[in-house]
Automatic annotation (TrEMBL), chains A, B:
<dbReference type="GO" id="GO:0016787">
    <property type="term" value="F:hydrolase activity"/>
</dbReference>
<keyword id="KW-0378">Hydrolase</keyword>
<dbReference type="InterPro" id="IPR029058">
    <property type="entry name" value="AB_hydrolase_fold"/>
</dbReference>
<protein>
    <submittedName>
        <fullName>Alpha/beta hydrolase</fullName>
    </submittedName>
</protein>
């Protein structure tokens, strides 16, 4: 893990960009508390585009005493593109623009290979982050690309709680996998998110095997998660990671 | 409003039983803060049976600086029974015990007259409570018999926010009424509550006309609302009534 930049954001938060092999990422640490529990910030890809929202989430996490980290997804941002993923993304966009239902087959082509590539990268990143003296356990996963969060929750025992954002397509094959999730879950659903299949999100919530699972549904569209809902997610991590 | 008993619960909470005409009820006030905002505690009827849970909710409200009050429902507890309501209740119980779907007609017979009788009683109680020097505005409604909460939210402008517990049958005719609700809503749904129609609860949440509405779904059965979900509901009132 090579740190390539370092910036004090104020309010006692240190922001460092890093690369880990070919994976670029960002780490935010509270300068006061060490070692800090860690929250992995999931997102749909495109670190630069997502930066304002990620940094806001990281600042809130730091204020609660948590470190936060994110990495660029394979095939997104400045990382090499995959022709197959680009094709699947174009097919998805075409279906959405035409107002057609999205074929399961498109979702499978887009999301399954992404999960296969991204999850081991998150795990490698986790190895590196947990070797830093300023990071301790436990670890939470927070955010989008729900399918990545599900797979991580199943295969990565170092993740002990997750906030999942129900705003992305999940391959049908992964519903069975959702039953194997047993860590405490806090699921955010934007009720009137037009790009999201609400019924699928509810079915998925139902499928999760966790004994503690909470669904918070709110108005406000895909990017309009209310401040109080962000606060509630932060409280969930405080309950489970502190 | 006649106070018939008075008890200091400790932690600075005063509990007083009252009667208002033929309506018995209980008022909890924080001894520190006056005048306090008020939360009306809804419940399915049977004040004595419900007392432990109501008192726990009232203590939590008092700790946040809120007064809380509840009244016995018409036809419940020690109040005179209605033959028609008893018949409807028996028909409902029979359908549930037989594992049959509950006829809309039974729900209408049970709930619509209850709403017609209970809502004016709540309003009369509100008149009396708001005339006490220790009670100020604003006012919230919290709890069950969702249909009563819906009607109150529509007809009673002094109620400015509501926590609704999705654990009771709501007449189909009231779904249209739900669209007229515009106050901030916080809806609690026990996801695996066998006595509750989950899809109906989701449809009802969808129908509410409020710009701010939040659904919190949790595991734990009808009476198993987790402590953190109660805390979140308390925070909702702190946001809207303080």
């Amino acid at each position: 893990m090579q740190f390539t930049s370092e910036q004090h954001l104020g309010s006692g938060v240190l922001e460092r960009e890093f690369t880990l092999g070919e994976i670029p990422g960002t780490l935010w640490t509270p300068e006061s508390a060490a070692p800090a529990p860690l929250i992995l910030l999931g997102h749909p890809g495109g670190l630069h585009r997502m930066y304002p929202r990620l940094a806001a989430r990281a600042r809130q996490s730091a204020a609660e005493g948590f470190a936060a980290a994110t990495i660029e997804l394979p095939g997104s941002g400045d990382r090499p593109r995959s022709a197959a993923a680009e094709q699947a993304r174009a097919d998805l966009r075409r279906a959405l623009e035409a107002g057609e239902p999205v074929d399961d087959e498109i979702v499978d082509r887009l999301v399954l290979p992404l999960v296969e590539k991204a999850v081991p990268e998150w795990q490698t990143t986790l190895d590196a982050l947990l070797s830093l003296p300023e990071i301790g356990g436990p670890v939470g996963y927070s955010g989008g690309v729900m399918a990545i969060g599900i797979r991580l929750a199943v295969v990565e025992p170092r993740i002990s709680a997750a906030v999942l954002f129900a705003g992305s397509f999940v391959p049908r094959a992964m519903f069975e996998e959702a039953r194997q999730v047993t860590i405490p879950l806090h699921v955010l659903l934007q009720w009137d998110d037009e790009g999201n299949d609400r019924q699928q999100a509810l079915d998925l919530f139902d499928a999760f095997g966790s004994k503690e699972k909470t669904l918070h549904a709110n108005l406000g569209g895909h990017t309009g998660v209310p401040q109080f809902a962000g606060d509630a997610a932060a409280q969930f991590f405080t309950r489970h990671l502190s």
